[in-house]
Amino acid sequence: MVFLVRSTKEKVVLEQLRYQIRCPELPLAVYREIAAHLRQVQGVEATLMPQTSQQFDYNQSQVSGLWIQYADASDAVSRERVKQILAYYQNRYGAWEESASQEMPSDIMGSES
Q1: pLDDT higher than 50, residue 29
Q2: Which of 25, 31, 63, 67 has its CA 20 to 30 A from that of 111?
Q3: Backbone phi and psi for residue 84, each to the nearest 5 degrees, phi listed first
Q4: Do 104 and 60 touch, CB atoms closer than 8 A?
């Protein structure tokens, strides 16, 4: 995770700029739908992460997760909208797991997904 610290009148606000989330059994089509919804939010980029497992499991998703990144200038409204979108899908498909990864891998699936 990367954090941006902004100071506002005696208050320090810590803002997360990028992170990776996953829901292990979430279908590829749903990941694509979520990424498309997130990309519609101003200042947000969403990228599918390739599956890294060497063993096939029918119940496992074809992607390993979703990389979400905010532009430095993204506002509180955009961040709240992302939370709402993720909460909607969490209620339908199960809890998100947050990855500890801090750097975006160079071999990601990109926005063509």
Answers
A1: yes
A2: 25
A3: -65, -45
A4: no
